[in-house]
């Protein structure tokens, strides 16, 4: 229904310069794609960590072909082809074998007569042993090993997102709070899905909502489970979460009352699930779409109903969500306010950063413009003014801000703008209340004034 208006990103990594424009990724990987082999002395980041040694030169394209086959969402399918084939088990074995063939001292290796897989890597902070034939262990081990392999051997422009250490941190956090109760080792979920799952549960717990401590991956949406178990179906994680929370008796009762007399009483639960899914997957986009419809009158006969519907669910949630289940702060600022920058892309992948500051509060992007990044401190100069993004059917308030730092002048703190100025208009979506303990006052190792 909606399209995301992706902001320009300019990331400077040790091995890549990533520019994201309008949702498309363009990468110059400094000979990564030009060279046929990767030597053991290549960038440590691409070798998991500097202590690991490749067995010899490798053909990176052949490795990528092997990975695409192993990851196999096309060949394995979302559904297990043969329940007797131990799909999770076999997939984990294939990834572990590949890692051991690549590295003399693989961070992922078999143990205990191949009945266990040991994942030990300081770069990601992982030191875990998983039982190959245990369904719960297999699901988590599959996701972590897949995330490691994607991060070091696959490009972002090949369609793999969230392949940073952040994904593994979130998977480990989920592992500490939730157990998969499947009986057969035939299921797996992507690291991207488990990361979103983990972050949404953290958000819901912060909001004081009940969170599941068990999960069952199954085709059967009506499988008998207790109230502490979430059913993970074969759609998106957002959909599974929506189906779980749409059962909340208070929310469902209030929603049914809201629909009385609308003619939609018979589809109350289904409609509620759709709305919750949109909130969990990209609440920012949903809010901006609703605002656009209100301003343009494109759906004037219906938009007030949809806005009231959204407000009911938002009030129950008790928290705003940006996307992928991450919490957002929706508030207004006035000129002179300090604010912090919150960039969900960078929070997921620290190589994916840089929110361009527009010279005017209008659509359009130019990578030559100045930018700010996650956790930077800014001062509000003007705004808000609401900008319409017609290509995306979205509207959002924007503010003119400048980046800088605070310095002491006697017993007073003085705001010092950067020179040259880092000044321009930014969407409200990327701003939050300033917290001196969280938001850096200009001391960022990637900051443009340090280059």
Provide structural commentary.
With about 450 residues, the protein is an alpha+beta fold. It has ten helices and 21 strands. A hairpin with a 5-residue loop joins β12 and β13. The radius of gyration is 24 Å and the shape is globular. It has three domains: about 40-210, no CATH class; about 250-320; about 330-450, no CATH class. α1 (about 60-70) packs antiparallel against α2, α2 crosses α3 and α7 (about 250-260) runs antiparallel to α9 (about 305-315). Helix content is about 30%, strand content about 20%. Strands 14, 17, 18, 19, 20 and 21 form a six-stranded antiparallel sheet that branches. The protein has helices at about 60-70, 85-100, 135-155, 165-175, 190-205, 235-245, 250-260, 270-295, 305-315, 345-350; strands at about 10, 15-20, 25-30, 35-40, 60, 110, 115-120, 125-130, 180, 215, 230, 320, 325-330, 340, 355, 370, 375-390, 395-410, 410-415, 425, 430-435.
């Amino acid at each position: 229904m909606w399209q995301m208006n992706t902001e320009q990103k300019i990331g400077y990594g040790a091995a890549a310069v990533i520019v994201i424009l309008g949702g498309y990724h363009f990468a110059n990987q400094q000979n990564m794609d030009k060279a046929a082999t990767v030597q053991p002395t290549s960038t440590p980041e691409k070798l998991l960590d500097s202590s690991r040694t490749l067995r010899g030169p490798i053909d990176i394209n052949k490795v990528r072909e092997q990975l695409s086959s192993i990851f196999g969402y096309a060949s394995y399918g979302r559904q297990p082809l043969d329940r007797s084939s131990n799909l999770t088990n076999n997939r984990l074995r294939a990834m572990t074998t590949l890692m051991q063939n690549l590295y003399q001292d693989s961070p992922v290796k078999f143990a205990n007569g191949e009945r266990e897989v040991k994942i030990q890597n300081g770069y990601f902070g992982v030191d875990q042993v998983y039982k190959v034939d245990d369904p719960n262990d297999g699901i988590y081990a599959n996701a972590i090993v897949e995330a490691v392999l994607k991060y070091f051997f696959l490009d972002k422009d090949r369609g793999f997102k969230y392949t940073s250490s952040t994904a593994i941190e979130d998977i480990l956090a989920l592992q500490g709070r939730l157990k998969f109760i499947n009986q057969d080792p035939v299921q797996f979920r992507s690291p991207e899905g488990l990361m979103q799952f983990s972050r949404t549960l953290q958000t819901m717990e912060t909001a004081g909502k009940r969170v599941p401590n068990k999960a069952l991956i199954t085709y059967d949406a009506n499988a008998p489970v207790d109230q502490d178990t979430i059913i993970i179906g074969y759609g998106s994680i957002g959909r599974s979460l929506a189906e779980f929370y749409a059962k909340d008796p208070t929310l469902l009762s209030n929603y049914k009352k809201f629909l009385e007399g609308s003619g939609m009483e018979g589809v109350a639960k289904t409609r509620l699930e759709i709305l919750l899914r949109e909130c969990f997957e990209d609440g920012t986009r949903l809010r901006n779409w609703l605002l656009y419809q209100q301003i343009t009158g494109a759906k004037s006969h219906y938009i007030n109903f949809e806005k009231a519907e959204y407000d009911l669910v938002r009030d129950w949630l008790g928290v705003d969500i940006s996307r992928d289940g991450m919490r957002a702060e929706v508030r207004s600022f006035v000129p002179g306010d300090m604010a912090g920058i919150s960039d969900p892309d960078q929070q997921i992948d620290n190589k994916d950063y840089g929110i361009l500051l527009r010279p005017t509060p209008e659509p359009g992007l130019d990578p030559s413009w100045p930018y700010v990044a996650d956790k930077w401190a800014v001062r509000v100069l003007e705004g808000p003014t609401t900008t319409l993004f017609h290509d995306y059917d979205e509207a959002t308030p924007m503010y003119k801000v400048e980046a800088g730092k605070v310095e002491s002048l006697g017993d007073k703190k003085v705001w010092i703008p950067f020179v040259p100025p880092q000044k321009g208009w930014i969407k409200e979506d990327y701003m939050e209340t300033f917290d001196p303990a969280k938001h850096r006052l200009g001391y960022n190792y990637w900051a443009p004034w340090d280059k």
